[in-house]
Write a structure and sequence with these properties.
Strand 2 and strand 3 (34-37) form a beta hairpin. The protein folds into two domains: 2-43, no CATH class; 53-102, no CATH class. It is elongated, with a radius of gyration of 25 Å. The chain has a three-stranded antiparallel sheet with strand order 1-2-3, with no helix packed on it. 51% of the residues lie in helices and 11% in strands. It is mainly α. Helix 2 (53-64) packs across helix 4 and helix 3 runs antiparallel to helix 4.
Length: 103
Amino acid sequence: MMHYVDVFFHWMVTEKRIDASVEKNERKVTINGKDFQMIDLNNIRNKDVREIGDEWLCYQAIRKLHIGPFLESLGWDEDQVRLTQTPLIRRTVYPASGLTTSH
């Protein structure tokens, strides 16, 4: 696949289909003074990844269901409501056991 990308990119430059002056080595391309790094998407590794999307979506569902106000109507204070919502979100997003979820 990379071969086709290189061929197409070379064609665009030689046919002046893009406005670029190009310097190229094996993994890096410089276009108009800006460096672009070629990467292998099948071998990307990232440490310490954090996601918020699933948790945010679950929290929005809890808000739409009015779970917080319901618990407050039972006499729960704000801290108790938050302490209840947190594991609810955690177990919804990561349905494994509590020990596995914490890891």
